[in-house]
Every structure is written in C-alpha cells, then in structure tokens.
Design goal:
The chain is mostly helical. Helix 2 runs antiparallel to helix 5.
Length: about 210
C-alpha cells in the first residue's frame, strides 16, 4: 500500500486535472455528452486510444450523419466499423425521439447514481453500453464514485487480493460487489475512488487517459 500511496503522490495532480476535464465535459452541453457516449461505444472491447481515434474520425459528422457515411469513415482501418456505427445511429435517433436529445436533463432526472447507471446499461435502445461502459461514460462526463471495471482495474484488484479472479463481471450483482470492494479499499487507503481508478489504469497502461 505504501508503494501505491507514493505512486499516487507522484501522479495526483495529473489525475485531478483529468477529472476536472471530465467535469467540464458535462457543462459543454448535450452534443459533447453524446460524443462521450459515442467514445464509450467505440472503445468497448478495444482500447481508450482506439476509441479516441475512432471518434476523431467521425466527430464532425456524428450528430447527423447516416449509417453508410459513418461506416465509410470508419472502414479506413478501424475495428468494428460495420457494427459500432449502427449502435451510434440507433442510440442517437432513440435519444432524439424519446428525450429530445436533452441529455443533461435526462441524466439529472434520476434520483440516485445507481438508477442513472442502470438505465444506461439496461435500456436496449442504448446500444453497445453495458455496466462497464455506462460507468465509463458517467465518469467521463463528471459523475463520481463509479468504478470502471475494465481488465486493467480488475487485474489491479486481483493483485491486491481484493478479488480472487480477474474475470469479467458479467452480471449487475457481481459488478456491484466488486465496485463495493473497490470503494471500501479506497476509503481504507485514503485515496478518492475516481482518482484510484485512474491510478490503477495508469499503472497498467502508463497513461492517464479517459
């Protein structure tokens, strides 16, 4: 734990700067929030860097482009170029039709953090978003105390003896159990859970991204 605290001390300012960037994203409005959702759709089962590169390739058209146009852009060397654009178009059209694309208003309407995430993960019209992706999205737009349990975070938790195996948390109940253990460890070690999440991720990747 001492090593972890020392590493946190070295990276604390960079981590906090990144979290402040996430908070600003929410204030930028509905379009920025939707683009962050697109990033999480594109990054799922891939990597943050690939998600960022994929979003950069379509960011200027993602709010209005039809499916063939998005697929054509992403067919130039990106993974899942057929399926992921279909997720984006379906989700975009659903959010426009059902919620008038008022994403800040929608997200603020939930009474608690768990119901907000459960809505994103369970709504079948929000394509490509499970519990990890919903947590990732909410964290990246400034919501706090969600664990992004990707393989890097699970491996760190396993190495610390907090979980026995670094298996993908398939069910909501398992996700919550692991998240609870991470939250308790965060409180025990005295490092904010959102900061701990980025610290773990940087340990495995060498980077503090989103």
């Amino acid at each position: 734990m001492q090593t972890l605290r020392e590493e946190y001390s070295q990276k604390r300012e960079a981590i906090r700067s990144r979290l402040m960037e996430f908070e600003r994203r929410f204030q930028e409005g509905d379009a920025a929030i939707f683009k962050e959702l697109c990033f999480c759709i594109l990054a799922a089962n891939s990597s943050a860097e690939m998600g960022m590169k994929s979003l950069a390739a379509i960011e200027d058209i993602v709010l209005e482009a039809d499916l063939p146009m998005l697929q054509e852009r992403l067919s130039r060397g990106f993974r899942y170029w057929r399926v992921r654009p279909s997720y984006i178009v379906h989700t975009r059209d659903y959010l426009k039709q059902e919620y008038g694309f008022k994403l800040r208003e929608l997200l603020q309407s939930f009474p608690d953090p768990d119901s907000r995430r459960a809505f994103l993960a369970a709504d079948k019209d929000i394509k490509g978003i499970g519990w990890k992706e919903a947590s990732h999205f909410l964290r990246n737009i400034g919501y706090r105390r969600y664990a992004v349990l990707d393989k890097h975070i699970r491996n760190c938790l396993c190495e610390l003896g907090l979980i026995r195996k670094s298996l993908k948390p398939l069910s909501p109940a398992r996700y919550r159990r692991i998240e609870k253990k991470m939250r308790e460890f965060s409180d025990q070690i005295g490092i904010d859970m959102d900061e701990l999440d980025l610290l773990f991720w940087s340990r495995k990747t060498g980077k503090i991204l989103k």
